[in-house]
Write the structure tokens for this entry.
Amino acid sequence: MNASSQPDLILHNGRITTLDPKYPEASNLAVKDGRVMGVDDAEEYRPGPNTKVIDLKGRGVIPGLNDSHLHVIRGGLNYNMELRWDGVPSLADGLRMLKEQVQRTPTGQWVQVVGGWSELQFAERRMPSLEDVNAVAPETPVFLHLYCRALLNQAALRACGYTKDTPNPPGGEIQRDHRGNPTGMLVARPNAAILYATLAKGPKLPPDHQMNSTRHFMHELNRLGLTSNGLRRKGRLEQQSCDYWSHHPVVESSTARRTVVIPARRVSSWTISEIFVHNASLMLRTKHPPNQKLGSLP
């Protein structure tokens, strides 16, 4: 057997979902140059000295997931600047995390919690109040984004220049107290334009930090099984904040290192082409704890 037919990767002893109705599950597969060369016949391919062989030990393998609406460019360029509340069980925990993030945030930077959370996930079953946010962040701008509304502390209102004299924009509402001063609540009525315009007023990372941030973001998406996404057309935030589309090579170079393409026989051609090994040694695990993302990836 010549070296050209030796697989780069063999997965065996697993439950591999093919998404082919006629052959829905396999126990092994062989991969060469990023493409599947064999399904359920890996024993026909002799491993070479550079072949990686993984015993899945009964674990599952599924095609990589695709997100059709993920704002992957904006998310990548800003990931290192964001605090995540995904799955945080209580508002008390969220406010503690917010306070800790404020304490390690450099002067001139904001603390942003952009989506991925809801008051319904908290044991208290309520949103943070403006008083809560101002108490833990008296001087550091904080922006809490929920798509239908956003909360800004007093420092963020000052940074954005929102005052009693600031009119409501066409795409949103600045809530005010009885004296007409902005309270810090922004309402996406009739649409979310005010939220994205406000987010675009925040600081931006320098180019090398944007690359690092995007790599961390891609690493986290891969860890969760996401291997591809549909880029949406240039939107309001992209137009207002920076030319995100000039960073497309950053996205491509970050994802190319972490996907295995497998358009192959017995794998439906219309399905997602990347593969994700669930809970196996191929799974890309993060090397940083949550919200501690300022290091570098290999």
